[in-house]
Structure formats: C-alpha cells, structure tokens
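2024-03-11 09:14:02 DEBUG pipeline.ingest accepted 1 chain
2024-03-11 09:14:02 DEBUG pipeline.ingest length=393
2024-03-11 09:14:03 DEBUG pipeline.predict start
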Amino acid sequence: MGAVDPTVNSLRAKEARAATELALARPGEILFVRAERRRRLAGLPAATREKLCRAPVRKWRSTKAVTTIRATPGYGGDNRTERFALTVMQAGAAAFGAGDRKARRAVVRLIARWAKGRAMTKLEDPEDASSYYVVERTLLPTIVTYWLTVRGDTRIKASTRARIERWLEGLVRRSRETRIDLTSDEVSARNNHAYLAAGVVMAWGALTGDLGMVETAVAVYRRAIAEMRPDGSFPLETMRGARALWYQRHAVASLTVIAEMAAVQGIDLYGYRVGKRDLHRAVAFLLDGIEDPKRVWRYAKANVNPGPIRDYRRQDLGFLRRRAHGRHYMAWAEIYMARFPERAESRRLAALLAESQPDFRPMVDEYSGGNTSCFFYTPPGAAGNRAESGQRE
C-alpha cells in the first residue's frame, strides 16, 4: 500500500489529545437507553410491537458451540456460527421488546452453552483475517443480547454470568489487540474489517465503562472519516468491483453503529467532520450510487477482490432486500432514520427500502447489532432520537 494520507497523519496527535477528554454519559448502556426504548415500544400499537420484535419461531433450538473457526479458501468465511447468531438476534429482541419469556430462557441457555464451550476462542489459522471477521460478526449481536437478557439479572446464577462475561471479554480483547492498529497501513486495518472490530470494542467499552476501549473505537471512526474521499466514498471499499456499493454500505453500517453507541454516551461522532467529509456524506454517496451505479464505476474498475461477479458495471444491489438466511443488510438504516428523521438521506432510505421490498421490517443483521426495527423503529411524525449538535471532546 502507498503512504497514508497526510491528513490522517496530521490528525493523529489531535485525536490522541481529544481521546483523553472523552467521558461516558451512560456506562452500562450500548445501542440505546433501555428504559427509554421500553417506553417507546409500550406506546406502539400491540400489533406493531409484536411484528417488530417477536420472531416467527415456534420452538427455539439450541446450537452446539463452535470452538474453532475454520479458515476457508477464497471469498467468504466459516458460516457455522450463523444459526447461533440468528437465534441470538431474534430471541434477544423477542425477550426485550415483546416480553417473550420462552425466548429469554432459550437465549440465556444458548449464550451460556457457547460460553461453556469456549466458542470461537480458537482459530484454525491465526493469520486469517476472515476468521477474525466471522468472530466479530457473531460477537456484536451476542454482546447486545447479553446486555439485554443476562447482565445484571440476579435470577441467573452468578457463576454463569461470570463465565459468560469472561468469555465475551476474552474475545473482545483479542479483537482489540490483533485487529486494531491505528499506525498500520494494511488494508484490513483500514477497511470494513477494522470498523466491525471497532464496533465490537465500542460495545464492550460502553457496557463495562472501559473508557480505553471507547477511545480506541472513536479513533478508528475518526480515521475512517479522514480517509474518506470528499465525495463520501471509501477508497478501500469502492475498489471492490461489482461489490463496490456493497462494501460502501458495509462500512456505513459499522460506522453508523459506532456513532450511535457514541451518541448514547454523549459523544457526537455523527457531527464529526474532516473538511466536508462526514458520515452523512458517506450515506449520500451510497444512495447516489444505488440510484445511478455509474457514479461508482471509476473506483470499482480497480476490481480488487470483487466476489462472484467480475464485471464491475454490474453492481450487486442484493443488500436492498432481506436475504434468504433472514438477514437484512440495510438494518443500519433503521438506526440512522430514527436518529435523523428530517434529513433528506433518511427520507431517501425509507423510500428506497419500501420500493425494494414493501414489507422490509423487521430488519435483523449482525453488523448492526441485531433486530434494529425492534430497537429503533419510530413511527412517522413521532419524535426520534436527536444527536447532539456539538462535539463532546
């Protein structure tokens, strides 16, 4: 790789100083303030609340812990954690948002089983970036569901809660130590891999009150904004050929999650700008590219690791609809639309999602922390969340 953008280098000293001034407004909360969200859900019609939060599952099934993550050749990663992750996301939302006791019992037992089995603690190839990615993709919604259903619940044995917490913390610390290097010029230290890892670290830092972890995630977010092009595109995502917009969306998803967790703690990353670069510009570039994919061609033609489609002009927009495995890769949009209901980008997102799949809710996705429709949906006209206008730095 070439030299890091001088803008990034010039920001590092400033960021180091700013990080020491961060403070956590609500340690113990992650994606939202639980009491506030419960009140909002209680104000929704029962049928709406049930649709958003209760999963169409008659019997919750357990899954054997996957202790070792396999290295997979070529594109993709070990998919054996996907069933666990989907159960965690669906049951966690049903327990929190719909008061589903069976779902709660099932997900507590499942997480405890994976903790006891030391799930994901071993990697077949410790040098394989995709293996870490699989762990972090699974870990983010697990932390969120642990927060919603296990942590602090005295009905669960203290020894069980302690085992789960040790297991999760060990995985988070490994990610922080091996996946986040703000001095590195390696691709996986500067692209969506780093953003996903930072989301995991941010979630755990917010939950446990670990300011150092929050500072690390904030620094990754700021570097992402600094390395963005002025038009809102991410260079290391949009070079991905037919999946240029796919990975632009990927980066936006993780950065939105980090910004929202920061907002809960009184830290305004949504408003963080480097010149004209900010998260809103990245969202706008994604929407513009979906509307007219030719806008990304000049970057996509690099065709670096493009996935199954070799023609960069055939942009893969499959993320606009719910996938066959139950995920919706635009779940981050629920967070953004709730936070900024009056922005043009939010109106465009709502229209795009409805046009692509009228019945797009609930939206569930690991990269966004779970069932974001249950956690964030706000009826049109209702007051949404509001980001603070000034930097708390």
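2024-03-11 09:14:41 DEBUG pipeline.report The beta strands are 68-69, 122-123, 364-365, 370-371.
2024-03-11 09:14:41 DEBUG pipeline.predict end
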